[in-house]
């Protein structure tokens, strides 16, 4: 097994997670070139809860989401300040193994993006470590079934797992992407508007899956859909122009927001 | 619009005429015997018999050797130019170099090959000139290596554009699953670009099969001297590959009155075989890459 240096514990007292917290961002700032998109975000992701991030387009919620698994770094001009910790480890520490981090913090994208392979291979790709010998399909079949079940897709695909993933419907593809993410055994799953390309029935199906996932993973979901945020999440954060304007239990944010902007936004006044 | 249409028609007409002309003049010469017997020594002047077995095998040799080098080099270069491009000044130099190789006439490569592979310490790639100790620089290996150069640019360009069509979200999905850059390239980007890579290899094969200058200079064009008996034997194959030979193109040149021979019929026959070979190859590749695309599985 690899011997990896444990990333340094974050030193600032407020950058340490409590037992019921899985991730915590402190003073998180992001700039693309000279354009500042996040102005110092302090935010907590609770363990085994669903956190919804809402706000108008361009407010920085997707950028924040991509900060949590360091996909942010794919943008060459991105610069950042502040800390983000996952179970007391600074995820931006130099000793942090990027590939391990991204298995612990998985991601489901806006457009369903299964690989152009079979359903089985899509999940198997996530399971297979970079071992010298690839495990035989039979060896990982039980695991493939398990995650397809958890993503609520098993019954629809069990008859033909060698079918191309791209022959599935959009909703099925997105659940396959969730299954694929689950196969890496993450602690946190990030979802970037996972239902925006789907019809209402598929959306309902995915929301059901999200609620079920809560029993063993934490979910951070970016959504433009107020009803969806209210239906699936335990906590809600409202982003506006790079600031976290409001954060709290979902019911409270929607019924008794403390800021006027939040009240206007959830009432549908802008955005 | 009308002009464009007319251009297309003229093009199709030209090709159809050419294929028809070749078929009309060549078909009578093509037979099983023609394909499976060696050219009869000294027969090309007088117009008597002999087949094209040796040039056929010779073309196959240079294609295999050339692609064996051009394929990994070309795909590797394309991956560098699309997925890495660092440092950018180096990427620009590589880019320009590929274009230059594309533009250099193959006879220049032939001369270059003659000079480079003539070095006395490279005799193991061809033969030794007993009087000087220099290498002859005439062999299947040497011509295969130089032909790899002319097959290289189309492989790079076709692979590059195919890699660019692999959507970025596929790469992101792989990264988000904790896969490194190399794994992502190997398991997602290259398989996604497969149809384009195959197209590039086909273009490369076409250039190698169709090249004449390198084959004449670096292979010797020894139509009149068939390969030694038992050339295919495992003990003999190294010697065969280090030795001189011919390809279909050099055979056509030597057999036709335009070259040294006086057997136009044989030349037409060989040209027809060459043409059909390329068409069949293209068809197979189309079929194979099409099936791959539809099934899309890579267990």
What is the fold's blueprint, element by element?
The complex is a heterodimer of chains A (271) and B (299).
Chain A: E1 21-32, E2 35-46, E3 50-54, H1 61-68, E4 78-86, E5 89-90, H2 98-104, E6 105-108, H3 119-127, H4 137-150, H5 154-157, H6 170-183, E7 188-192, H7 200-213, E8 218-222, H8 226-232, E9 235-240, E10 243-249, H9 250-255, H10 260-266
Parallel strand pairs in A: 3-8, 3-9, 6-7, 7-8
Antiparallel strand pairs in A: 1-2, 1-4, 4-5, 9-10
Chain B: H1 2-26, H2 32-36, H3 43-46, H4 53-84, H5 88-103, H6 106-116, H7 140-165, H8 168-176, H9 181-192, H10 194-210, H11 213-219, H12 237-242, H13 248-255, H14 264-295
Largest interface, Cβ cutoff 8 Å:
A-B, 32 and 23 residues
Classify the helix fraction of chain A into a percent range: 25-40%
Q: What is the typical, i.e. mean, pLDDT of chain B? A: 85
List the secondary-structure elements of chain B in sequence, H or E: HHHHHHHHHHHHHH
Number of strands of chain A: 10
The CATH architecture of chain B can be named as Orthogonal Bundle
Strand order of the largest sheet of chain A: 6-7-8-3-9-10
Proportion of strand residues of chain A = 15-25%
> Low-confidence stretches of chain A at least 5 residues in length (pLDDT < 50)?
none
Named at the architecture level, the CATH assignment of chain A is 3-Layer(aba) Sandwich
What can be said about the biggest beta sheet of chain B? none
Quantity of strands of chain B, as a count: 0
Oligomer: heterodimer
Shape of chain A: globular
How many H/I helical runs of chain A? 10
Which fold does the CATH topology of chain A refer to? Rossmann fold
The CATH superfamily title of chain B: MetI-like
